[in-house]
Design goal:
about 10% strand; 5-stranded parallel β-sheet; binds cobalamin; about 55% helix
């Protein structure tokens, strides 16, 4: 029987890894294109997860589990994307800024962006301005996503924005900042392009910065 992609979306929402991977495999075998599997299965599922997270119906563990299922499914689909000419919404370089080792929130943001159609390059934690810039250059990034959880590492965000400016790359790349101590006021102060308070809003912001309807 032909697979209904809503079932795949539901498997993502419920965090059912074996089912999600099985349905993805089945969809590929049935000849469904990667675009349809991603849009109507994975992204549809992660969109619901994001809404539930915003509405406090889901908490961090549920989002992490759903995002992991999505990631597993994506590894099956990724090789087919280039062949089918599927274009990501944009390329984002993600990292926790220099001096900061907190990565739970950053990982959530990265996974939600990936689940919503962005190509994500995750640089990990303790990322220096130079590393951000080198990666943005190498990957032709559209957006830089900076995370900080310590008031003492927030200045690293400013240093990264300044370094981007000095490298002559500021006009071509949008900068998003976030993390518990970060505010819209701070984002404005350091001349970032945007701030969002959580992973679901980060996806909306990234789409806005790319000029895609959220
Ligand atoms: C877990 C944790 C740790 C773990 C980190 C493990 C890991 N792998 O991440 C460990 C034990 C290593 C740790 C170490 C330290 N920690 Co700590 N830690 C925490 C804790 C308990 C939870 C943070 C967390 O993961 N929250 C959950 C995630 C999901 O939330 P989030 O990160 O805010 O992310 C969300 C949003 O902010 C947003 N977001 C995040 N990034 C981005 C980026 C963009 C662009 C956007 C748009 C959105 C966005 O989306 C996310 C999802 O919705 C907090 C306290 C707390 N309750 O917040 C303290 C806390 C952050 N830690 C603190 C401190 C002081 C430290 C240490 C200095 C302790 C010490 N003396 O050694 C060290 C610093 C180490 C270092 N150099 O980084 C303080 C920071 C105080 C401050 N304001 O500066 C806190 C607030 C605890 C406290 N009340 O004192 N910590």
């Amino acid at each position: 029987m032909a697979i209904a992609l809503e079932e795949l979306a539901t498997a993502i929402i419920k965090g059912q890894k074996a089912l999600g991977v099985g349905l993805t495999r089945q969809a590929i075998e049935e000849g469904l294109g990667p675009q349809a599997i991603i849009s109507d299965g994975l992204i549809a599922g992660m969109a619901v997860v994001g809404q539930k997270f915003k509405a406090n119906e889901f908490y961090v563990p549920e989002v992490l589990i759903a995002a992991r299922v999505m990631k597993e499914c994506m590894t099956l689909i990724k090789p087919l994307m280039a062949d089918a000419g599927v274009k990501p919404l944009g390329t984002v370089v993600v990292g926790t800024v220099k001096g900061d080792l907190h990565d739970i929130g950053k990982n959530l943001v990265a996974m939600m962006l990936q689940g919503n159609g962005f190509d994500v390059v995750d640089l990990g934690v303790d990322v220096s301005p130079e590393q951000f810039i080198a990666s943005a250059k190498a990957n032709r990034a559209d957006i830089m996503v900076l995370s900080a959880l310590l008031t003492t590492t927030m200045p690293s965000m400013k240093l990264t924005v300044d370094a981007l400016q000095e490298a002559g790359m500021r006009n071509g790349i949008k900068v998003m900042v976030g993390g518990a101590p970060v505010t819209q006021g701070f984002a404005d102060e350091i001349k970032a392009d945007g701030y969002a308070p959580d992973a679901a809003s980060a996806v909306d912001l990234a789409k806005l910065l790319m000029g895609v309807a959220a």
